[in-house]
Amino acid sequence: MLDMTTGHSVKGMFIGGRWTQGSGTFEDLNPSDGSVWATMPDGGRAEAAQAIDAAHSAFRDWADQPFVKRAEYLLKIAEVWEKRAPDFIAAMQGEGGGWVGKGGFETHYVADVFRAAAASTYQAIGEVLPSAYNKVSTAVRYPMGVVSVISPWNFPGVLTARGFAFPLAAGNTIVLKPSEDTPYCGGLFFAEVLEEAGIPAGVFNVVTCSRDRVAEMGDELIENPRVKGISFTGSTPVGRAIAAKAGAHLKKCCVELGGKDSLIVLEDADLDRAVQAANFGSFMHQGQICMSVEKILVHESIYSDFLEKFVERASKLKVGDTRDTSNVIGPLINDRQVVRVKGQIDDALARGARAVLGGGVSGRFVEPTILTGVTPDMDVWRDETFGPVVPVVPFRTDNEAIALNNDTEYGLSSGIFTRNEERALSMARRMETGMCHVNCSSVNDEPHVPFGGTKASGLGRHGGRWSLETFTETRWITFDRGGRPFPPVF
């Protein structure tokens, strides 16, 4: 096993089945201490176009493969990924600043993504329709061609795999651009795995770039006429721009964006389980998850009891460099995130909120922070935090809890704790979120489910057949066996 917590050498970008260097390089930093974890190839439009050409050239042969053959490749990818799990976990600690347990979760989940994608090739891809003219009338899904995948840094294993596995299974070819903060875990590691799994040249390509060249490379991945679909996971501002640009070019896209997710705890909840869900949902990976709990809404009758238990449990989370596996709360990914999170804490405290736990910031390390007295005029109530900071707010009625949940431009996920499932379902129907989990955290995902949000949290759904719907074209094909008559004048 490679010790990738201390640094790593990369082969280059992966284009057309070959490793190639970019026109320059950039430094990939360890967020825990700011040291150079690796030197990465820095590409731009030219490299993106080269990768798109390679994917386009490989498309027809890949699409024409028997579905069972594509399934075999995907199962082989899962096998190689599991074999390389220790390498990914170590890289996730060094490049991504992730807790060792998070790395273990990602490796297990990613293997399941590829297995689920393999299984999807056996599912029905069309249907036979009734015809008034006795035709054999079919609606059949066909792969689109080249799909660009732009993946994020926070869960680079899971969110990258989810972005391309199902489109790949459907017969599309892929050009992947990972985040400049995790170009290895979210990109080049996948290239190593798929190369070892024997994926045909050009079917899967990875290009990397520095932050300075993101716009240049991103524009090529959207505007190039050979690109037929775009899969993006990331921030809402960037997602808006990508969706607008894709729309201008009449291209299909699936964008999964930010959230301001609530955990609602009703008076009849299992309090201990609700507290654990709040702790996990708020602070897992430093709160750097699109589904993170960013508002805890607690019925006023149990508010004091909940808060006491929550503070006690969260205070046990250790903060520090995740190369020490006893540290659960690692660094924020970069200095920009620290400025954002610290700004929200400072704004809340200045406006009258109280930190009943944490509030301290040291370098890129932010203590798990629990705020009370938060009001809607504060940044931490309105804006996505993406850090280990959460307000706990009391409510009186179900209607008030629903209104507090919906008081945001976002609508990704949510959780409700109650022993009354009928009550929870009634509330869930009125909550403006794409997902809702009863007696569980807002942080939930499985490879085969329709994952995505409403409002400013995204467009389209990732996962299972919903990915296939996005990244295939539906075609109507008929066979005239009834002799449909034409007008005699013709």
Description:
There is one protein chain. The protein has 490 residues and is α/β, with parallel strands linked by helices. It folds into 2 domains: 13-257 and 457-476, 3-Layer(aba) Sandwich (Aldehyde Dehydrogenase, Chain A, domain 1); 261-438, Aldehyde Dehydrogenase, Chain A, domain 2. 39% of the residues lie in helices and 22% in strands. It has 15 helices and 24 strands. A 7-stranded mixed β-sheet has the order 14-17-18-13-12-20-21, sandwiched between helices. A 6-stranded mixed β-sheet has the order 9-8-7-10-11-23, sandwiched between helices. Helix 4 (100-120) runs parallel beside helix 5 and helix 5 (156-169) crosses helix 6 (184-196). The radius of gyration is 24 Å and the shape is globular. The model has no long low-confidence stretch (mean pLDDT 96).
Provide a quick synopsis of the model.
With 490 residues, the protein is α/β, with parallel strands linked by helices. The protein has 15 helices and 24 strands.
Which labels suit this protein?
490 residues, alpha/beta, Aldehyde Dehydrogenase, Chain A, domain 2, 7-stranded mixed β-sheet, 6-stranded mixed β-sheet, 15 helices
Question: Which structural class fits the helix and strand makeup?
Answer: alpha/beta
Main β-sheet, spatial strand arrangement: 14-17-18-13-12-20-21
Strand count, sense and barrel status of the largest sheet are: 7 strands, mixed
- How large, in whole angstroms, is the Cα Rg? 24 Å
Helical residue percent band: 25-40%
The number of helical segments is 15
- In total, how many domains does the architecture comprise? 2
| Oligomeric grouping of the chains | single chain
End-to-end separation: 74 Å
Global outline: globular
Ranges where pLDDT stays below 50 over 5 or more residues in a row are: none
CATH topology of the largest domain: Aldehyde Dehydrogenase, Chain A, domain 1
CATH class of the largest domain: Alpha Beta
